[in-house]
Amino acid sequence: MAPERLVDRNPRLSAGELAARFSPPARFAEVRFETFVPNREHPSQAEALGELERFAASVVAPAPSTGGWGIFRRRAAPPAEASTRPGRYLDGGFGVGKTHLLASLWHAAPPPKAYVTFEALTAVIGFLGMAEAVRTFAGYRVLCIDEFELDDVANTLLTVTFLRAIIPEGVKVATTSNSIPERLGEGRFNAEDFRREIAAISEHFDALRIDGPDFRAASRPARTKALDEGAVQRLAGTSPNGVTLDAFPDLLAHLRRVHPVQFGALLDGAETVLLTGMHPIENQGSALLFVQLVDELYDAEVTFGATGCAVTEVFPESYRHGGFRKKYGRCESRLSAMLAEADRRA
User: Fold this and answer.
1) 3-state secondary structure of 75
2) 3-class SS at 331?
3) Which molecular-function annotation in GO is an example for this chain (predicted)?
């Protein structure tokens, strides 16, 4: 039987169906605070663990409100228990455990609760509309947002407006990023008005810096070369169910027709996703959509294989030095890891 094609899928989940998916992806489904092992050489990891455990307890038993909603202020010295700010911001580089801790917070918190990536959140707000999104999320006790990146002016205003609306409703918010709060948006725009918006966001959160090396870099194999056609055919034949096979140009065109909020559903039931003819993406809009799809593939632990150009050639050099460089860097890292795993399985 010939493999299915992603381009033949057109998911259209309703608002309620989307809300039911607001949970950590398969990669972080089993993590807990108890499974987080801090690096002894970097005490900030243990400190962040303790702070998030206390924050989780405050979600279970809310502390009295002090009023004055200001989203990120660097936390002062202990006692940490005294903080009544409604948010926590985990700042650090790749592979230091931020997402592990964020997902652990979600698992520890009582329902109703939501876990989304920043890209998914902005996509949901755009899909539902601001008013409906606020009504949906205002009912949660805690909202966990992974990879909080202010990529452009529109997302800045969208997110600030949204969080300013739900936090006074009693929603606690925790988020991760790779930029310190005062530098969110740096390298992307310089307008003074939007700097003020970022400063306003900083007032809501206690920021926790997490230091350390990228543990994944040492423990995870990587491959920048694409697979050969034989490897892709073997992968297609070894899994009779849940295999999709698409031409890369066709997939890029299809991603422009499917709303990004539906990308997770686009992969439902897929255990192996294969592409042929991967090539440099000259259109940045298509490149960013592909980045979002790769994030979904990686988080869902889907086997991914592709023929064509090397990972380092998918995004033009100018992309990797522009405002979205962290997105592209993350995508290249994830593509390399998935190709290495696919090569091992083939």
Assistant:
1) coil
2) helix
3) ATP binding
Q: Is 101 left (phi over 0), alpha (psi -120 to 50) or beta?
A: alpha
Q: Measure the CA–CA gap between 15 and 6, rounded to whole angstroms.
A: 22
User: Tell me: the pLDDT tens digits for 266-307?
Assistant: 999 999 999 999 999 999 999 999 999 999 999 999 999 999
CA distance 102 to 108: 10
* 219 CA to centre of own chain: 21
Q: Are 272 and 242 in contact (CB under 8 A)?
A: yes
How many C-beta neighbours within 10 Å does residue 330 have?
18
Residue 191 burial class via C-beta count within 10 angstroms: exposed 0-12, middle 13-18, buried 19 and up: exposed
Report the candidate in 88, 97, 95 with the shortest Cα–Cα distance to residue 45: 97
Tokens found for residue 208:
């926790």
The predicted-structure confidence for 242-260, as pLDDT tens digits, reads as follows 999 999 999 999 999 999 9
Structural tokens at position 297: 């593939």
Is residue 311 over pLDDT 60?
yes
> In this structure, how many other beta carbons lie within 10 angstroms of the beta carbon of residue 246?
21
Write down the pTM of the prediction. Answer: 0.85
The H-assigned helical ranges of the chain are: 15-19, 44-60, 98-108, 118-128, 130-137, 153-166, 192-202, 215-219, 229-238, 248-255, 263-266, 284-299, 311-314, 325-345
Max CA distance (Å), the chain: 63
d(CA 309, CA 227): 9
Percent helix, strand and coil across the chain, each rounded to 5? 50, 15, 35
Residue 199 in tokens: 């400063």
Rg over CA atoms, the chain = 20
CATH code of 31-213, in short, is 3.40.50.300
